[in-house]
Protein: NitT/TauT family transport system ATP-binding protein
Amino acid sequence: MPDAALTLDNITCTFVSHEGGQQRYTAVKDATLAIAPGEFVSVVGPTGCGKSTLLNVGAGLLAPSSGQVKVFGEPLLGINSRAGYMFQGEALLPWRNALDNVTTGLEFAHVPRADAQRLGNEWLKRVGLGGFENRYPHQMSGGMRKRAMLAQTLIRDPDIILMDEPFSALDVQTRQLMENEVLALWMAKRRAVLFITHDLDEAIAMSDRVVVLSAGPATHPIGEFNIDLARPRDVAEVRTNPRFVELHRAIWDVLREEVLKGYAQQKRA
Ligand SMILES: Nc1ncnc2c1ncn2[C@@H]1O[C@H](COP(=O)(O)OP(=O)(O)OP(=O)(O)O)[C@@H](O)[C@H]1O
Structure:
């Protein structure tokens, strides 16, 4: 069997709070998750359960307290250079136009400027921003900024794509358009994707597999579902498929209780 693209093996993350004494909070405990090359995996879980923490561990931005991360079979030490990371918030530099934002990563990788600009323009076209290369972030809509961020993440053709609720700030229509665009780009390249979302519909519509996390503290996977819906998929149309409805019910059965627990904890906090 080929190595998984990304393996999170028995990961535990304990944070130490320095406010008011040395309080410890174990956000993630003994979490194991593997993503095959070319596989699209979504992780869903209640708010604040530890989804971003797991993604940060996979990106090499956060060292786990225990456990191991492997990238194509090799232990990860430091930043995961085979991964591209698309954050939840705004990641564009306000003083750079769309083209210069999209090519930032290439610049860090010392790609010659002419090559970077050619690739940048190609990617801007691919995400529907052809002709907008000179726009600055404040001159773009939320959807346009997300498109630029997508191009910024994919331009280096990473083997692993990590996405943390990338479209949560968008209106429903723009969001569905972007989801379809991501699927089309993914179908063309078939990279490993770890997609974090709290939206179960989005997770099912996009993924090959949906992993459900327990409410925190000590979050870990408690359910895993293969999404056997045919591809290519249209994220809006697939929601009316009877199998989608069936999968939604089965996953929600597991997720519901965790969401309620997470909600109760937030109210207590
Ligand atoms: N650096 C840190 N120091 C202390 N606690 C942290 C740190 N990072 C995360 N936490 C805590 O760990 C828990 C999990 O946070 P995380 O951001 O991973 O959750 P999430 O599931 O991604 O949340 P959301 O759904 O709101 O995006 C939270 O209780 C959070 O407060």
Q: What stands out?
A: The chain is about 35% helix and 25% strand. Residues 91 and 149 are 7 Å apart (CA to CA). The radius of gyration is 19 Å.
